[in-house]
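Hi team,

Below is the intake form for Cyclopropane-fatty-acyl-phospholipid synthase family protein from Massilia hydrophila. Please confirm the fields before the structure is written into the shared record.

FORM ID: S-0412
PROTEIN: Cyclopropane-fatty-acyl-phospholipid synthase family protein
ORGANISM: Massilia hydrophila
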Amino acid sequence: MFEQMLLSAWSAGLRGMPSLPLRVELWDGRKLEFSAEPPRVTIRVPGRSALRYLRSPSLYNLGRAYVEGDIDIKGRAADIISIGNTLAASLDKGSSRLGEMLRRATPHTRESDAEAIRYHYDVSNDFYAAWLDPGMVYSCAYFEDGTEDLATAQQKKIDHILRKIDLRPGQTLLDIGCGWGALVLRAARHFGARCVGITLSENQAALARERVARAGLQEQIEIRLQDYRDLEGQFERITSVGMFEHVGVQHLPEYFSRVNRLLAPGGIVMNHGITTTNVDNRATPYGGGEFIDRYVFPHGELAHLSTVVRAMQEGGLEVRDVENLRRHYARTCAIWTENFESQAAHIRTLTDEKRFRIWHVYLAGCAYAFAHGRISLYQIVCGKADEDVEQLPWSRSYMYP
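The structure came back. Fields below:
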């Protein structure tokens, strides 16, 4: 009886909201409808114990219930995330601080960072190839007019980065977090650079080396399985694309100080990374950040742009150009989500059901978070803070030929 009262109060609260195209199917055959229009999302509750997730429907609770198989959810990922956010916002009791405290308490050692990278990236190369572009670029694409297909937009992104750092033939380029090698391959083949790419993912390193060999660029490109903290030497150009999110907010000054030491005099750095829009560097609301930390990116941390700029200055780097690509990443993630769903049957043969469910909601969740301004993406060009900058062009026109 008490359970029934709680369920009735919960459903009455939702019915008091604007129309929600949601159906909840209970274990006893009852169906709760929250809109006159056909449901776009159906939540199936197999037993009484699963009701606790609906009574406290944070993004973390709903995501955990779906991933662990305690509830089943049917619908397009974009609709699932949209309705999930509505449910979470309707009964929000304030952002969870426990997950935030645990995340900040986790040390970023070489061992823990390597383990986190392996968890996220070493699913299998085939898994990522199923929904990424043919170049396997796992970062924000660049859409000049919004009509480009993903492969075109990813190549434009790489060229946009390499033009921003004014890369020239014969220069040395370090790519920190090189992924499957798309950027260094482009830099060597089309810009004539001599490149070193580093990653902590064995799967990425193996495939990147294969691609370098197939391209006949072994004399120009070296792929290393290496932590950025162990790098030595100096490079005329440095790029870091989608990597600094793994560093940890408190370690950003140390990270940029290392980058500064690796940068040759007169050199240029470009950092391309996700940031939070929360000025206090807090995780995304309604438990979304907690879900990602547990299931997707262990130990990942997002800093606000102001924190990043300050950390760069503390590391001895001067910011010279900043570009916001939040809109571009929302579109990129939306395309990834569509690709993932269109290849669902194939992807299920590449991984287990739990990981499939994690990525099913994660990609759509990222698209939603970027589209709604909870997270952002900035490309920041910088150089040594104490240098004369006469080597740089006078205007930004060289970035946009």
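SUMMARY LINE: The radius of gyration is 23 Å.

Thanks, M.
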